[in-house]
Design goal:
By secondary structure, this protein is an alpha/beta fold. The chain is built from eleven helices and ten strands. The chain has a domain of about 200 residues: Alpha/Beta hydrolase fold, catalytic domain (Rossmann fold, 3-Layer(aba) Sandwich). The longest helix has 16 residues. The protein is globular and about 50 Å long.
């Protein structure tokens, strides 16, 4: 079943966090329960348009652009740490008085939402994370085994390389559209075109570039330990749904032991879906979402 996007669309709004001018879209219906949709890395808030259109009559749907993404400001110092993202989310919920809020989030957005829910469990009513738990315990252990000096050296070299990396320019929006199709073969042409149109800016010379800051590609040299992350998972009070695509590269937390750290979570794997479950199997995703919410 295809969902026709509402021609009225959402309203663009702005809020501030750590002096950054951050953007989100508001789908109206402010008297309904609040629902936040949080996108993943190198993505943008309009990737939720199909989901928002389906839910906007029953929910007050808001979808932010993460710092350095979409129409939000780029961090001047290239700060895209998980802590910074969590702070931005905390500020949006605090400033707009959304708590207790329901959150649906994908990938990087899921990682942010899960950690936020562990820090402020009383403010989250229900939580859905699509492949949002981050690296497996094995990968985290391998990372921790690398001495901090070596990790810092790698991070500094990576930052220098990104400083010299210019945004890729596409001669036409059709070229960017084809790149979007290559990134996710599950997308229909209509989906890929919509995501491309909202995901690029036109440069002064007429070419097109993706909106995200290249610095968002960098991994932090330091961050929470695995034990600290698991401590936050254990603090989450609300019912939690962890979704995975059976054709994705992401590891299932039910199989690697991560699920055991949650009090009230279950895992559902979706056949025929890759990393973007909400795009690849939209109807099935919406059925799972409505039943859970």
């Amino acid at each position: 079943m295809a969902i026709d996007l509402d021609s009225s669309g959402p309203t663009s709004r702005i809020y501030f966090s750590q002096r950054l001018r951050l953007h989100y879209v508001d789908w109206g219906n402010p008297t309904a329960p609040p629902l936040l949709l949080i996108h993943g890395g190198r993505d943008h808030c309009r990737n939720w348009d199909w989901v928002a259109t389906a839910l906007r009559r029953d929910w007050h749907v808001l979808a932010p652009d993460l710092r350095g993404h979409g129409d939000s400001q780029w961090s001047p110092d290239g700060n895209y740490s998980t802590a910074a993202y969590v702070y931005d989310l905390a500020q949006l919920i605090h400033q707009q008085e959304l708590a207790p809020v329901t959150i649906v989030a994908h990938s990087l957005g899921g990682n942010i939402a899960i950690r936020y829910a562990g820090v402020f469990p009383e403010t989250v009513r229900r939580l859905v994370a699509i492949e949002g738990l981050g690296p497996t315990p094995r990968r985290m252990a391998a990372r921790s085994a690398i001495p901090i000096a070596e990790r810092m050296q790698k991070w500094i070299a990576e930052q220098r390389a990104l400083a010299g990396r210019l945004p890729r320019r596409y001669a036409t929006i059709e070229d960017a559209f084809r790149r979007m199709q290559q990134a996710n073969a599950h997308l229909s042409p209509e989906q890929a075109r919509h995501l491309t149109q909202h995901g690029v800016n036109q440069n002064e010379d007429g070419t097109y570039s993706w909106k995200f800051d290249n610095y968002v590609r960098a991994d932090s040299a330091y961050g929470m330990t695995q034990n600290e992350i698991e401590e936050l998972w254990a603090r989450i009070d609300c019912p939690t749904l962890l979704l995975y695509g059976k054709e994705s590269w992401a590891a299932n937390p039910e199989l690697d032991g991560r699920l055991q750290h949650f009090r009230n979570a279950r895992v559902v794997s979706v056949a025929g879906a890759g990393h973007w479950v909400h795009h690849d199997k939209l109807d099935e995703f919406l059925d799972l979402l409505r039943n859970f919410l």
